[in-house]
UniProtKB/TrEMBL annotation:
Organism per entry: Friedmanniella luteola
Pfam families xrefs: FMN_dh
Catalytic residue list: H247
Keywords: Flavoprotein, FMN, Oxidoreductase
Residue stretches making up the FMN hydroxy acid dehydrogenase domain: 1-348
Chain residues that bind FMN: 80-82, 109, 129, 157, 223, 245, 278-282, 301-302
Cofactor(s) the record lists: FMN
Name this polypeptide is given: 4-hydroxymandelate oxidase
Length: 348
């Protein structure tokens, strides 16, 4: 039977919006400026045209790979997203369990309120996303704590040194669990650091990469790179690679999309590091496009978060397993039985 399986819906946005308070939906759905960047990001993945290969041996289709040396069952990883207690009462703990069940990997935001120990207990490999705070000592304390609990890499986010507009800024949320973040630092540690210490440091530089690498002993991926020259400079400065990302269209509305930036970044990095992509990926065809253009794996953001809000662990697992299952079919149609066969020549 060569018919594709029935298509599983992985779009939980409408259901989630029906359940969440409006300020949380607004935050999850937010995009920068006029908001067009978000939809355009998806449209540019959809615009990729493939040149499928004929007569390949397609009896076994394999979606496994390694990411910075960590084996995963799927190249669909979960993007770091802040304050998930707003989407689900157990937040990142549930996201981590779903990632573990799907054989995926989880990005954990600096702005997390669930204890690292709880996230780690789910068993999924996880990478810690770093916003460098103005107080570097406090940043180091938090990073060291993530390392102690088993984070396997650091994602240094460089595209968000300022905050979202006040209308969608979580700092405006009513007091409560959803508003909590940075609870992996103690109240005493935060109090000692003083006011403003946890604001983002707008003065980060290439030297920050080496600082994080030395202090943690972990590989550092730079998240939010959209240019070949920046990517090459990051890798020269000691990064293990970069994530091509527009922060889901949340950084700058009229920005080049991730799909358009990816080939330039892949060419600039060459074999010197691993390149990842996110922003606007909504189907297995999009995932295949990113991998064919040179991404080692991809991250999904909002689809996983809407699913978490609408249907908890089952929802997120449906998204991850749905995309992975659909990816097998796309790989079959492309004549690419393994991820290393998703190569640039497949793109017209
Ligand atoms: C994010 N993103 C993000 N990135 C990051 O490095 N640190 C963070 O704390 C957050 N927080 C965050 C919250 C919410 C609600 C969203 C939607 C996104 C960006 C995220 O990691 C990723 O780059 C995008 O979400 C990918 O785009 P899509 O898949 O959402 O289109």
């Amino acid at each position: 039977d060569h018919r594709p399986d029935p298509v599983v819906s992985i779009d939980y946005e409408e259901r989630a919006r029906g359940l969440l308070p409006p300020h949380i939906s607004a935050y999850i759905g937010a995009a920068a400026g006029s908001g067009g960047g978000s939809a355009e990001g998806t449209a540019d993945w959809s615009a990729v045209r493939f040149r499928p290969r004929a007569l390949q041996d397609l009896r076994t289709i394999d979606t496994r790979t390694t990411v910075l040396g960590t084996p995963v069952e799927t190249p669909v990883l979960v993007a770091p997203m802040a304050q998930q207690l707003g989407a689900h009462p157990e937040g990142e703990a549930v996201m981590a369990r779903a990632a573990a069940a799907a054989g995926s990997l989880l990005g954990v935001s600096t702005n997390v309120a669930v204890p690292f120990s709880t996230i780690a207990a789910a068993g999924a490999p996880w990478w810690f996303q770093v916003y460098v705070m103005r107080d570097h000592g406090l940043t180091e304390l938090l990073v060291r704590r993530a390392v102690e609990h088993g984070a396997r890499a650091l994602l240094l986010t460089v595209d968000m040194v300022a905050l979202l507009p006040a209308t969608v800024n979580p700092r405006q949320w009513p007091e409560g669990p959803a508003k909590s973040r940075l609870t992996n630092l103690t109240a005493a540690e935060l109090a000692a650091a003083g006011p403003g210490a946890v604001d983002m440091d707008a003065g980060i530089s290439l030297a920050t990469i080496g600082w994080l690498r030395e202090m943690s002993g972990l590989p550092v991926l730079v998240k939010g790179v959209l240019r070949g020259d920046d990517a090459a400079a990051c890798v020269d400065a000691g990064a293990a690679g970069v994530i091509v990302s527009t922060h889901g269209g949340r950084r700058l509305g009229p920005s080049v999309t991730a799909a358009r930036a990816l080939p330039e970044v892949v060419a600039a990095v060459g074999d010197a590091g691993e390149v990842y992509a996110d922003s606007g990926l909504r189907s297995a065809e999009h995932v295949a496009a990113a991998l064919a253009l040179g991404a080692r794996a991809v991250f999904v953001g909002r689809p996983a978060l809407w699913a978490l809000a609408a249907d908890g662990e089952t929802g997120v697992q449906t998204v991850l397993d749905g995309l992975t299952g659909e990816l097998r079919q796309v790989m079959t149609q492309l004549g690419a039985p393994s991820l290393d066969r998703l190569t640039r020549d497949l793109v017209a």
